[in-house]
């Protein structure tokens, strides 16, 4: 009887029908799949590659390639979801990156060309517009509430694995708000054990009602196939990106201009909060929206735009996913000196990276050919550094160093700290320090939080 009750409860949660005959009970999520599957599409992209050395290819092998010896076509496949009227499709950027042409095939076999409306490199998202006749009616998926997902919830992944055709896999939500998976410094990801394989990228992760709660985007694997650790971009984030791109063609991210940490029970008690909640501000960037709103170190942010925030990750998600926050007065509730206080803040766009002051290192020195850029809020976010971090970061290195004999193993993302004991604050500081001595260089740089020192003679 207990097993029968459990099965009936599962059926109620799934919103699915069941068939009972001769003692058999069938549990099915068919209704959820039927609701969304027509809006999940297959995406085929092609990219023409120029191959100057292709004439050296074996003639027999060349016959098997698409195109001539001077021009080869690379094909890739993935998935997407129709999320807007008129054929607005969301997929992963890596599915169509660099493509010369994109074809989208619906589940009923209809195929359409597509043009790129815009991309979001930070979240690996792209938005396409299908070339459909005016007035054509296409199936549109329904966005779900990714914020309400809990570990253990049943989810289904719909996509086109390995190009074999639309397939469905089932699993559960393994974790929510994953931010340590090296996927992106922006946003928290849904982790699931539903099988996600090559070709599924850009597909739909749906809940038991058929609502899209995520866009499948990556897997953790050692074999190249699914090993039960997959990741999806939450619907709350994807929906905001799609709306921005469909409206303007690009994504503008609001920023607070402050950093904080999760509260502990001891700190909460010391501040008189009673329980650990909110984000304790540890730094406020001068001139930022937070600074202009009067926020200061030691404030505890409890709510943003009426929604509670429990930790820095949730605060960041709320800033990124709440629509229409840019350049409009927004309410913040903070705890300051034992009292609740409402602060009105006007979030602005994250300042762009300071590419104008990039420097290509020249001269006779170990870093010749390396390009560096001054740190700032945008670059710091990209590199996962504290907003207030100052200095110079390596942004590119030549494929072959002009003075390869020096062999200094710096790479993009490294922070140059000092040369011959001289601290480096700007790109000009670096060039000057490298030019000051042409016999010996002691270069100290930081990588992944560790300081490396190299002496070159």
Q: What does this protein look like?
A:
There is one protein chain. The chain is an alpha+beta fold and 457 residues long. The chain folds into four domains: 2-35, no CATH class; 38-251, Thrombin, subunit H (Beta Barrel), CATH 2.40.10; 254-349, PDZ domain (Pdz3 Domain, Roll), CATH 2.30.42; 355-456, PDZ domain (Pdz3 Domain, Roll), CATH 2.30.42. 18% of the residues lie in helices and 36% in strands. It contains ten helices and 29 strands. The strands form six sheets. Strands 23, 24, 25, 26, 27, 28 and 29 form a seven-stranded antiparallel sheet that branches. Strands 3-4-5-8-7-6 form a six-stranded antiparallel β-barrel. A six-stranded antiparallel beta barrel has the order 9-10-11-14-13-12.
Helix-strand layout with pairing:
Layout (H helix, E strand, L loop, with lengths): L1 H13 L5 E2 L2 E2 L4 H7 L3 E11 L8 H6 L6 E14 L3 E5 H4 L4 E5 L5 E10 L4 E6 L23 E6 L7 E12 L10 E4 L11 E3 L5 E8 L10 E5 H14 L5 E2 L2 E5 L2 H7 L7 E6 L4 H4 L7 E5 L2 E2 L3 H10 L7 E8 L2 E8 L1 E2 L9 E2 L10 E4 L2 H7 L8 E5 L18 E5 L2 E2 L3 H9 L5 E7 L2 E7 L1
Antiparallel strand pairs: 1-2, 3-4, 3-6, 4-5, 5-8, 6-7, 7-8, 9-10, 9-12, 10-11, 11-14, 12-13, 13-14, 15-22, 16-17, 17-18, 18-19, 18-20, 20-21, 23-24, 24-25, 25-26, 26-27, 26-28, 28-29
Can you tag this structure with a few keywords?
457 residues; alpha+beta; Thrombin, subunit H; Pdz3 Domain; 4 domains; 7-stranded antiparallel β-sheet; 6-stranded antiparallel beta barrel; 10 helices; 29 strands; 18% helix; disordered N terminus
């Amino acid at each position: 009887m207990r097993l029968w009750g459990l099965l009936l409860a599962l059926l109620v949660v799934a919103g699915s029908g069941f068939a009972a005959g001769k003692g058999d009970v069938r549990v099915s999520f068919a209704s959820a799949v039927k609701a969304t599957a027509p809006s999940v599409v297959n995406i085929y992209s092609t990219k023409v590659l120029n191959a100057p050395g292709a004439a050296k290819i074996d003639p027999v092998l060349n016959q098997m390639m698409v195109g001539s010896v001077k021009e080869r076509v690379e094909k890739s496949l993935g998935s997407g979801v129709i999320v807007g009227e008129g054929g607005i499709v969301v997929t992963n950027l890596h599915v169509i990156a660099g493509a010369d042409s994109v074809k989208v095939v619906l589940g009923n076999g209809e195929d359409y060309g597509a043009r790129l409306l815009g991309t979001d490199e930070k979240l690996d998202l792209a938005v396409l517009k299908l070339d459909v006749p005016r007035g054509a009616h296409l199936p549109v998926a329904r966005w779900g509430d990714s914020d309400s997902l809990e570990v253990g919830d049943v989810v289904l992944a719909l996509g086109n694995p390995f190009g074999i055709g639309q397939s469905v896999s089932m699993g559960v939500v393994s974790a929510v708000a994953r931010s340590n998976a090296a996927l992106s410094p922006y946003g928290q990801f849904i982790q699931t054990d539903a099988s996600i394989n090559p070709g599924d990228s850009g597909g739909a992760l749906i809940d038991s009602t058929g609502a899209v709660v995520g866009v499948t985007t990556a897997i953790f694997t050692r074999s190249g196939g699914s090993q039960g650790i997959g990741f999806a971009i939450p619907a709350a984030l994807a929906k905001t990106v799609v709306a921005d791109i469909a409206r303007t063609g690009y994504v503008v991210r609001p920023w607070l201009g402050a950093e904080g940490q999760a509260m502990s029970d001891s700190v909460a008690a010391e501040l008189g909060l009673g329980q650990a909640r909110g984000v304790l501000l540890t730094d406020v960037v001068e001139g930022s929206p937070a600074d202009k709103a009067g926020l200061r170190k030691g404030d505890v942010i409890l709510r943003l735009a009426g929604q509670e925030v429990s930790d820095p990750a949730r605060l960041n998600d709320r800033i990124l996913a709440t629509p229409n926050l840019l350049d409009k007065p927004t309410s913040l509730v903070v705890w300051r000196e034992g009292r609740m206080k409402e602060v009105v803040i006007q979030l602005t766009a994250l300042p762009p990276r300071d590419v104008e002051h990039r420097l290509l290192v020249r001269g006779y020195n170990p870093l010749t050919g390396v390009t560096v850029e001054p740190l700032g809020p945008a670059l710091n976010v990209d590199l996962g550094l504290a907003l207030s971090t100052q200095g110079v970061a390596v942004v590119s290195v030549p494929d072959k160093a002009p003075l390869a004999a020096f062999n200094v193993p710096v790479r993009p993302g490294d922070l140059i700290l000092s040369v011959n004991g001289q601290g480096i604050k700007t790109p000009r500081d670096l060039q000057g320090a490298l030019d000051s001595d042409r016999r010996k260089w002691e270069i100290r740089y930081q990588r992944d939080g560790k300081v490396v020192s190299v002496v070159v003679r």
